[in-house]
Amino acid sequence: MTATLGARPAPGKGRARARHRLAVLGFMAPALIGFVLFFGYPLVATVIFSFTKYDLINPPEFNGLANYEFMFKDPLLTKAIANTLWFVVVLTIARTVFALGVASVIARLKSGVGLIRTLCYLPSLAPPVAATLVFFMVLRPNGGPVDSVLGWFGVDSPLWFSDPAWAKPGITAIMLWISGDLMIIILAAILDVPQEQYEAAELDGAGPIRRWWHVTLPTISPVLLFGIVNSVILALQLFTQAVVAGSAGSGAADATGSTKYLGFPDNSTLTFPVYLYTQGFRYFDMGYAAAMATVLFVISFAVTIVLVQRMRKNSTAEEGGPGA
Amino acid sequence: MRKHTRAALLCVAAALTLTACAAGKGGGASSDAAAAPGKDDKLTLTVWSNYSDREYEEVTKALKTFNKKFPNIEIKHEGSQDDDKITAGIRSGNTPDVALSFTTDNIGQFCSSGAFQPLKAYIDRDKVDLNQLTPAVQQYTEYKGNRCAMPMLTDVYAMYYNKDLLSTAGVTTPPKTLDELYDAAVKATKKAPNGDIEVAGYLPTMGFYANRPTILAPTFGAEWEKDGKSALASSPGFTEMMTFQKKLVDFYGYDALERFRAGLGQEYSADHAFHQGKIAIMVDGEYRTAFLKAQAPQIKFGTAPFPTWKPADYGTAFTTGTIMGIPKGAKNPGAAWELIKHLTFDTDTIVGLSNAIKNVPSTKAAMESPQLEVDEQFKTFIDLAKSDKLKGNPVTPIGDAHIKAVTDFSVSYQSGKVPDLAAGLKEVDKNIDDQIAKSGK
After folding, report:
1. Domain encompassing residue A18
2. Which end of chain A has fewer beta carbons closer than 10 Å to its terminal beta carbon, N or C?
């Protein structure tokens, strides 16, 4: 320990210590400056703006808790929160399970692995607007490819982005299609599982499913937890796909950005970030938008803390083993 | 611990200072008129608009006509700049001299916040006669008596009908009343043996294409506000508008109608349902005449004023349009005003631009110009624009939040989710009033 930190000056040598601190600070400066400028300052500014009436043009005026109070009588905010919570639960579970499933299948492939891995990863590189419009065209009722195929079996396709009950599942489908980044991370974790563990389990008579359940899953659980945290944050920040799906579903894809179409149909695609943007930049109420952003930050932070603590608890339990 | 607290306090104090500085930025707005540029002043005027492609080229040509009066002024036209970018430009100090906004929804905010500079001093100094504009156009370019914008062409909305579809259905004249509209819509509707809609006589889904509450409200005599408060519930026109549309929705069946609507093309694409002969009657702006001629020349269509609830109101129409303002912090406000004045009132320029992009001219003189190309279909819009029954966009300081609230409610009502229309409208009124109160303007 002493050997690795041998450069630390002895106590009492004030000038040397100050120089040491300056050197440390100097090395950390690029990261610190970036953190303060692009995270710390916007965060503090957002909290400050949340206590003001601010129209983006004139200096903000302090209005106490008025923005927070208005949240309790804003019907659209309730909808936006409900929609985002839906995505947090459904999208998080679906995305993690889907990426895990695809990665598990690819990990077992004997040939064509490179091609299939590339094909599964590629959609995640598609620009979100283009990906959403492609999905809209594919799922389009009355003549879209999916509708036509379902028609051969005498099944009416859902109205997807025109039906409040199907719009969120439709967006979830898009998000699954572009989840190749998470799939690649999980695949790497699966391929990293020590082969001896599988062999030991096989000697103990475990079949493929039990090996997957008792060897693969526990070993990759930290990566899965990362996937869950990542998916929760993605769901909390869902914006582009919701805006484009809403605009296209309303027949106004070429007028994307018009507030009137945000949330279509029946505000089922109005997510918390979409509503936040609408309030700040379309209704010119940056104070209220900042209050919403503060609430979103607190919730995201709390969810992340809970998940990380759970992850730490799990890994401690695993390290301790049964006798610990 | 104390060190950490001190550091955190220092960070917050620094952030407060920075925030105050950043939030206060944006240059000045003056209520005095800046001097017009001299004939020898060399300067460049930056103009931001949301035009693109062919329309961008045509508007650029119109801007260049300003050089006949001021050859010493160079004009730099930047397209694809929406209201978000204009606001961001004002905040960052990167402000154009003239900003063109496509929507009048934000005029309340632009005028009340000072984002667009007041024009009264210029108008008084130059003795501009605003009566060259129709009252509706005057109304949608100001907020609470503060004129901060001028119009550049207008959009007027009327009924389009497919002549072949109506004639096959036995409808010989375009409907003028709501009963006639309902009958024509029912007759022109074609359904497949399984009940699927193949052609809709009239698509009543609120919010779809131009079937929007702002556009339809004038033909129902619906009033948006009274005594500074939202007045949807107390306006019989709104109740009539909702119940008429619901009657049509019930005729089609909500689910069948939604299935039909979900398969239709986008509003500004060649797949538009009217272009495809899938709807027989619709409401839309005059610009659709150009779209139809370019993208669907096989469609034989006519235009007429939209049917009204009260016969005496026939000939009523909704209007909105592109607006021009001098943003806060503009570097050459005097020259910017000269350009705005030129684009608002120079008849040759207005007529040329109107002919090029098929919008309705915004001055009475331009509408009377023999140079204006007016065919049978376009004439309907010109006649409506000249009428004193023309109504402008409802102006509020909350963007289009009020329009979204009404559209959302209408869709819920049409889908059968609202059992009590009157109570629902009162709830929407309260929501709109709350939002306006929150804005403090």
Report:
1. 13-49
2. N
